[in-house]
Design goal:
The protein has 160 residues and is an alpha+beta fold. It has two domains: 58 residues; 72 residues. Helix content is 36%, strand content 26%. It contains four helices and five strands; from the N terminus they run αααβββββα. Strands 4-1-2-3-5 form a five-stranded mixed β-sheet, with no helix packed on it. A hairpin with a 2-residue loop joins strand 1 and strand 2. 18% of the residues are buried.
Length: 160
């Protein structure tokens, strides 16, 4: 390709298949993150129904030389109106409790989990998923909705 050819080269149309994959990926990321924004925000700030978590059972999972443990137990609200069994305390580890021990906790509305009064950092992952979804969709929109670039002027050599 000569330098004269490079000035007249046309921009390729975006691939429909790649755009479809990007559209599906962006939509999936938004589908996963948007419904969890409220819970993530409440968990981050420790807002919700305050009460007490009573540890009952320690569950551990080992993977790749690393072990993750979490306590399951019951949550009872401070006013006694909410009583939930089989909930996990976010951030609890092997050495956090012994069976029957109690700790302050907050129920933010997550079906299977309660949090310590200090909140959690789970919101970071949720926000990253949300931003990734919006970014992918913006790329797809930019590829298909932006006007095509103007053609470059062809330079003709001046005889000298």
């Amino acid at each position: 390709m000569t330098s004269a050819d490079a000035g007249t080269r046309k921009a390729r149309k975006p691939s429909g298949f790649v755009s479809l994959l990007l559209l599906l990926t962006g939509s999936l990321l938004l589908y996963v993150s948007l419904p969890n924004l409220g819970e993530a925000a409440r968990a981050a700030t420790g807002e919700g129904t305050t009460g007490t978590f009573t540890a009952a059972r320690l569950g551990c999972v080992g993977h790749g030389g690393h072990e993750t443990c979490e306590w399951t137990g019951t949550f009872r609200s401070a006013d006694g109106t909410v009583d939930r069994e089989g909930v996990k305390l976010y951030g609890s580890g092997r050495d956090s409790f012994e069976a029957g021990e109690r700790a302050a906790a907050v129920d933010v509305g997550n079906a299977g989990r309660v949090y310590g009064p200090g909140g959690s950092q789970e919101w970071i992952f949720t926000v990253l998923l949300l931003l990734a979804g919006y970014t992918v969709l913006a790329v797809v929109a930019g590829r298909h909705l932006a006007p095509p670039p103007l053609p470059r002027p062809v330079r003709t050599p001046v005889p000298g």
